[in-house]
Amino acid sequence: METRTKNKTVLLVDDDHEDQEIFEDVVNQIDRSVNCVFVDTAEDALEKLSTADLKPDYIFLDLNLPFMTGFDCLYIIKKNDRLQDIPVIIYSTSTRESDKQKAKELGASNYLSKASTFSEIKSMLANVIN
Fold first, then answer.
1. What is the full DSSP assignment across 19-43?
2. At a CB cut-off of 8 Å and minimum separation 6, what does 25 contact?
């Protein structure tokens, strides 16, 4: 009997479209079978996640978002019974220890500071996605 593994899906919540493109390019180099879903705001993420259609394997969440912060979005995700087990990885330009600590306290499974080179980003994401 053949066992089929479902393709992984990652949700990136980031209002920077260039970062979205780089993220998708890196993920495609790591594993072309991974499906990337992008939203620009925390509100859009929560709306997408509220439907039964989307339950990603990982959520990558920027902290600096318009309207609602990544911290607020993380808090809401971790309080939701259907979503709380999804690993949420903070993916931010912030390198502040206080942000890392707050993310951990709110339930983030990892904190990645956005790297400046493609190879650094690929190395970071490969450790999470594989």
1. HHHHHHHHHHHH-TTPEEEEESSHH
2. 118
pTM of the model: 0.92
Q: Residue 127 has which token pair?
A: 């450790």
Centre a 10 Å sphere on the Cβ of residue 96 and count the other Cβ atoms it contains: 11
Hey, what are 46's tokens? 């929560």
Q: Which residues contact 116 (CB under 8 A, 6 or more apart)?
A: none
Per DSSP, helices labelled H in the chain are 17-30, 42-49, 70-79, 97-106, 118-129
Task: List the domains of the chain with CATH numbers.
Answer: 9-129 (3.40.50.2300)
- In this structure, are residues 66 and 41 in contact, taking their beta carbons and an 8 Å threshold? yes
User: Residue 88: beta bridge partners?
Assistant: 59
Dump pLDDT digits (tens) for 33-46.
Answer: 999 999 999 999 99
Residue with token string 């979503």: 83
Residue 1 pLDDT greater than 50, yes or no = no
